[in-house]
């Protein structure tokens, strides 16, 4: 009997080790299941603009050059190298977050990983050539840098720092959201000592500074201009256009002000996307961004000053609308002429594979996907409020509440930045709301664990 116990232990350990290997191999494949099924990485309307930055050598509104370089590095593998990186780094960040919360073991990792894959946009954005995967992941890495730097190794700190810096450089909205989380941390530091540290906030803030330098450096390397990626005024103009504010301004100030848009004020398209990207003759006749950037910036600034109450109401509505716009798949369909054109122009050897993919034959049914994704996303955000409300009622801040607060702040910041500046889009919500579902899963495991122990111990213990 005595000799059989060690044998049983060794068998159990071997099984756990095999399960861990299987989980580490299978989960990244499941995260890339949409792309594998598609036969080619998923594309989006904006993909071509990022890819072209390496080849065209000039800056385009809201198209990160650092992400363009990142895509270029994987071209020779038909971008499967990029997708593999996205899947592996996603699994690593999820596993590391679970570990610092004391949630270990291959079965828990597999269960939570499969849960996220089945109920959120995570596998779709992981399988896509777009910056969206970095939006949610960077909130988690920033959180780990700020709140858990003492529970990570030196190598992990370096990797978290580097990833956060790169992720921040891939999209201005991501940079702003992360900066807002950092700023909130500095403001709340006197009340959160013991939970977050000045050294952690300094490291996180430094990562964002490096991200900003990366934006400037990549822009200079590809365009010769030491400047930020353009986009603020033009995108804000588009949001004001679809809110009716541009039409109101033109009605009130034409013809006293000699604006290029005055002759077209009664022909404006209904949305900013239609105006900027819809290929309408009006924008083309007026010179597109080269001819209209100064006027769009002028109207945006003047309309902000002239109609503050109208702007405030529009901003509040845009923020709310963005919070509930969380459907998966916006801009990921079979009609992507610009992206197709860029691939065929600069990577003609990939045209056949790209055209043969299921996406290009309209074989993806996001309506069916969103039957699950939308209620899960909205329910997860409600659960974040429930966690925060419960903590306020108990007057106790535990680790799960700290994560829920960070995620809620990031979701609200994302809704404000994207909704107010760009206008509400499902893509902007779906790319980040999955971290609320992840947080809800962590909270559920912590609740069940504490229930089994019969205690109300902190989840970090």
Our Rg estimate from Cα atoms comes to: 24 Å
Q: Biggest β-sheet, characterized?
A: none
Instruction: Give the low-confidence spans.
Output: 455-461
Q: What is the global morphology?
A: globular
Q: How many β strands by DSSP?
A: 0
Oligomer: single chain
Topology order in helix (H) and strand (E) letters: HHHHHHHHHHHHHHHHHHHHHHH
Proportion in helices: over 70%
SS-derived structural category = mainly alpha
Structural overview:
- The chain is mostly helical and about 450 residues long.
- The protein has a domain at about 5-230 and about 335-370.
- The protein has 23 helices and no strands.
- The longest helix has 29 residues, at about 365-395.
- The chain starts with a helix and ends in an 8-residue tail after the last helix.
Give a concise summary.
This protein has 461 residues and is mostly helical. It is 72% helix and 0% strand. The radius of gyration is 24 Å and the shape is globular.
Write the layout of secondary structure elements.
Layout: H1 4-31, H2 33-38, H3 47-51, H4 53-56, H5 65-73, H6 80-100, H7 106-119, H8 122-126, H9 133-147, H10 154-169, H11 172-192, H12 198-223, H13 232-242, H14 245-253, H15 272-277, H16 281-285, H17 288-306, H18 308-324, H19 337-346, H20 351-356, H21 366-394, H22 399-422, H23 426-453
Helix pairs in contact: 1-6, 1-7, 6-9, 9-10, 9-11, 9-12, 9-23, 10-12, 11-12, 11-22, 13-17, 13-22, 18-22, 21-22, 21-23, 22-23
